[in-house]
Specification:
alpha+beta; 723 residues
């Protein structure tokens, strides 16, 4: 028997009214197999022995399976199950815990940061990692050059390039095309030596083939000189050439003015001389420059009655830029009162000292009407060509030269005036000129005769090109039509790229204009001319009429007649069609009448510029000018029924007119602006009241007049603006 309060091993004192139990829930003091204990379940054959129910620790797997199985003696929530859980808790309590010195929030944040880094690492492993470009000292790039391509080539961020371009005044996008010079300069800003490399094309092979070799130099022979006639308008250039050619050229020109370059060949003592007749008007400055660059000798025509004029000075500048000898033809020498000393002095001021004054510039006195001095002029040209010019060419090589003019002829297609400068051009050969190519179908000389060959220094009209080449473009003969097509297409792509880059270029100065472009008024034009040179001259004249308020927009420009598509474009854009020495097609005329489109046809360039100038001036917003008239002080006010408030005033300065505008001023501030409804002197209506007189004034739609108010009268003048 145990005494009360006696402790038993493994258990506490028994609770009164409750049987003492052991750790397993069995009565205290009992052992397995003892009387009062639960009988043990016999082992199945081959089964492993189980831990006694009273043992400390978790049940074994077999015990769990037996307990959860159908034949298990224990149930979930039974005493044995509770004893097992209690034993587990006691075992965990005895296990020492590791306590972190950091708070729980810090540990959670660290875990979250570690998880975030793990996710970022997995994301980078699944995607390509962007690597910052590395700066280079030398780089190469192929055109077309975009900002993106330049960034990758020189190892500079695209944003840095765009920022530098913005500082240079150009706002571009990352896909914008850059000019080669701009790209090289931009690379140098970042310390990179950029080299633009190109893939070798058929055009490069063409240039290599044009270079002279030793065999070519051995086969060179003397060629005829190419002479350009330059000078001021109406100084007799075409008349002089007409006398040389024994042909009437002036009568065929509109207004007696040469409108485009003519090329002719004459013979003097069995030796041919090629003449280029260029217009003298300032509108054709670019054409004169082109003529000077393809010429060997310049004949400067100076009228004896006018002397050196502004366009004569321009012609001298073009001749000097071409570095060619100059022969002065002093025309109209048979007129009375000719002052040679004055003309010689003016020539000396232009660094053209005549030989009579000890200089080296030959001056030949001529008369286009009588033919005086024509043989001497031709003899002087031949002498200068022999002494000062080394005129050599190889007639055996493929022809090269320059396109002087181009146009579209009905029935003949594209017709180009070519000057053969080296080699011999033959019918049937393949030529490429700028962006045009084709096979020479026919050739005609300056007299309209059909020819089959054109030796050096010979001007001919060539038909067979697929498109109209630009005047001034060089041409060359090729062996294969495929190579010619490839070169022409390459040049067309380059021309389009240059035009596109020009359209895309935006500077800070024109940014606002570009933004407001759709809001401003503009004069839209469609220009069609007979030849390319006339088109260039017309565009140059229109550039002089440019202004920011009314821009002149040339929507379409081209060579040839006015077609139906031109009228449709004019209808869609509200444009005016200008035809210079061309006629519209029948369907175009019908459509223009139907759409009410204006077609203006001209033969002289002055008329075009005058009409366009008038149109632009008509679209200019007139200038509003305010003219002060006088002032009157309100001395007393009268309220009249059905009339309103009338002010009794005294005119202190100027004059008050009945038709003037009125401004009411009170205590130095403008209160109201309107017009005068009535102006009276005593009881009579008057037209005006001058300084020092009294009057009655009624301001329209305003009655809040007070004593000491000031009525200021003014007039608004509309001034028509001109260019």
């Amino acid at each position: 028997m145990e005494k009360a309060g006696q402790l038993r091993p493994g258990g506490g004192p028994p609770t009164p009214g409750r049987p003492a139990t052991g750790p397993t829930g069995a009565p205290r003091g009992t052992t397995p197999g003892a009387p009062g204990a639960r009988p043990a379940t016999p082992l199945a054959p081959g089964a492993a022995p189980r831990r006694p129910p009273g043992a400390v620790g978790a049940p074994t797997v077999d015990e769990e399976e037996e307990r959860k199985g159908k034949g298990g003696a224990s149930r979930l929530g039974a005493a044995a199950d509770r004893a097992g859980r209690r034993a587990k808790r006691q075992e965990r309590a005895k296990t020492p815990s590791i306590i972190s010195p950091l708070p729980a929030a810090t540990l959670l944040d660290a875990d979250e940061e570690e998880n975030r880094r793990a996710r970022a690492k997995r994301h980078k492993q699944g995607h390509r990692v962007a690597v910052a470009p590395s700066r280079k000292a030398h780089s190469e790039i192929e055109p077309p050059i975009t900002v993106r391509a330049l960034s990758e080539a020189i190892g500079v961020k695209a944003n840095d390039l765009l920022r530098k371009l913005m500082n240079l005044g150009q706002m571009l996008s990352i896909n914008a095309t850059l000019d080669e010079d701009l790209a090289v300069m931009l690379a140098l800003e970042f310390g990179v030596d950029l080299e633009v490399v190109r893939e070798r094309t058929a055009e490069d092979d063409l240039f290599d083939s044009l270079e002279s070799d030793e065999e070519d130099l051995e086969n060179q022979v003397t060629r005829p000189p190419v002479v350009t006639i330059l000078g001021h308008v109406d100084h007799g250039k075409t008349s002089l050439l007409d006398k040389i050619r024994h042909a009437n050229v002036v009568d065929s020109e509109s207004g007696g003015i040469t409108q485009h370059i003519g090329a002719y060949q004459v013979e003097h003592e069995g030796r041919p001389i090629t003449f280029l007749d260029t217009p003298g008007h300032e509108a054709f400055t670019a054409m004169r420059a082109r003529g000077a660059h393809v010429t060997d000798i310049v004949v400067l025509v100076v009228a004896a009655d006018d002397g050196v004029m502004p366009q004569t000075q321009e012609a001298i500048a073009h001749a000097k830029a071409a570095d060619v000898p100059i022969v002065v033809a002093l025309n109209k020498i048979d007129l009375p009162n000719v002052n040679l000393n004055k003309i010689y002095g003016e020539l000396s001021q232009q660094d053209l000292a005549p030989e009579e004054y000890g200089g080296d510039t030959p001056v030949v006195k001529t008369s286009a009407l009588s033919g005086l001095g024509i043989p001497e002029l031709l003899e002087m040209i031949a002498l200068v060509a022999e002494l000062k010019c080394d005129l050599k060419a190889n007639p055996e090589r493929p022809a090269t030269g320059t396109c002087l003019e181009s146009s579209i002829s009905e029935g003949r297609g594209v017709v180009a005036t070519m000057l053969v400068q080296d080699g011999t051009l033959k019918v049937g050969e393949v030529i490429v000129c700028g962006g045009a190519f084709g096979r020479v179908r026919a050739m005609f000389d300056d007299k309209g005769r059909s020819v089959t060959v054109a030796p050096p220094s010979t001007p001919v009209e060539v038909s067979g090109l697929d498109s109209v080449p630009d005047a001034g473009e060089p041409f060359a003969v090729l062996e294969d039509i495929g190579r010619a097509r490839e070169i022409a297409e390459t040049r067309q792509v380059r021309f389009r790229g240059a035009a596109l880059a020009e359209r895309q270029t935006v500077t800070l100065e024109n940014l606002y204009d570009r933004m407001a472009e759709r809001k401003v008024k503009s004069l839209n034009l469609i220009i069609k001319t007979d030849v390319q040179g006339s088109l260039e001259a017309l565009l140059k004249e229109l550039e002089k009429l440019e202004n920011a308020e009314v821009p002149i927009r040339v929507l379409l420009k081209g060579v040839g007649g006015i077609s139906e598509s031109d009228i449709l474009l004019a209808d869609a854009s509200q444009a005016i069609v200008i035809g210079f020495r061309v006629a519209p097609e029948d369907r175009a005329v019908t459509l223009a009448d139907e759409k009410k489109i204006e077609i203006r046809r001209y033969d002289i360039i002055y008329q075009v510029t005058e009409d366009v100038k008038k149109a632009v001036e008509g679209m200019l917003v007139p200038e509003i000018k305010e003219v002060h008239l006088g002032r009157a002080v309100v001395r007393q006010t009268f309220k009249i029924s059905k009339v309103g408030t009338v002010a009794g005033c005294f005119v202190t300065q100027g004059v008050i007119e009945r038709a003037s505008k009125a401004r009411l001023i009170r205590e130095g501030r403008e209160i109201y602006k309107g017009s005068l409804e009535a102006l009276k002197r005593f009881k009579d209506d008057v037209r005006e009241v001058r300084e020092g007189f009294e009057c009655g004034i009624k301001i329209a739609n305003y009655d809040d007049l007070k004593t000491d108010d000031v009525i200021e009268a003014y007039r608004v003048d509309v001034v028509r603006r001109t260019l």
